[in-house]
Amino acid sequence: MKKINFWLILTLALGLALSACSPKVTATPTDVATLAPTEAATTASEPLTFTDGLGRTVTLAAPAQKIVSLAPSTTEMLYAVGAGDQMVGRDSFSNYPEEAATLTDIGGSNGAYSYDSIASLQPDLVVAAAINTEDQVKALTDLGLTVYYVGNPTSMEDLYTSLETIGELTGHMDDAVDLTDSLNTRVQTVLDAVARADSQPVVFYELDGSDPGKPWTSGPGTFLDMLITLAGGKNVGSSLSSAWAQISVEELLTQNPDVILLGDAAYGTTIDTVKAREGWDKIKAVQEGAIYAFNDDLVSRAGPRLVEGLEDLARTIHPELFK
Known about the structure:
The protein is an alpha/beta fold. The chain has helices at 6-12, 72-80, 115-120, 134-142, 156-170, 173-194, 223-230, 249-255, 271-275, 284-287, 297-300, 306-317; strands at residues 48-51, 57-60, 67-69, 87-90, 104-105, 125-129, 147-150, 202-208, 216-218, 234-235, 244-246, 259-262, 291-293.
């Protein structure tokens, strides 16, 4: 694959087992993005103790004031709960919000971080995500750093739990609760609208069309699969055998998607290039002009903008419901 960071895509798929639209869940440390503190602080002087997504006990003497983020998703979470001013470093891929660009870049391309740079920032908290390995977490803890690992959510409810835990880690619990309440309201608005739909369009989401004969897409158990389903669509990739896989033109013709979404639009793929692909003129979405560029960051990062991604997906898949 030439157009996207495939290492990032593969690691995002880890730990996902879809449980979309579910009521509030009780999860174990191994299958949830983050868990609530195992020991709530009763006074400002007591330490904060948490269990992270790897099942590790993480203790802070007080809410973190100097924070390094190892992933775009956790960077977006930290800013969303109001902890952006407490950040001192971020990974190379963190490009949202714009203010993140002013932070020290600690690496991350191809999974390689500058541990020396991270240590030099003297953070009291490093926030890792599912794109990070246990070996990376261990390497940082061996340097004497406190690391909290945020695992992948399996539902929107898990996302809310993650955000509230980030809020407590950073002293912004009230802000985090307000945020999750707002996000939940927005998700429910989408679900209420989709419930009125009289069809379930078949959706093909393209991650990388470098090989137009076998483009990459999202399979079962991924963020995209969850979000497309919540948005009232049927994901073409849900029939595949792995979370991220190539799909043949023959299979596309068989499923005959009603909508094509180009997550690789940022890398040069256009509606016209898709229309010109051999054999694609027989696909319903191509014949009816239902091909759309899509901001892949909104659905590939396990952060608060997943809700924006859901809204955009629903409006694109079911425009008749949002007039």
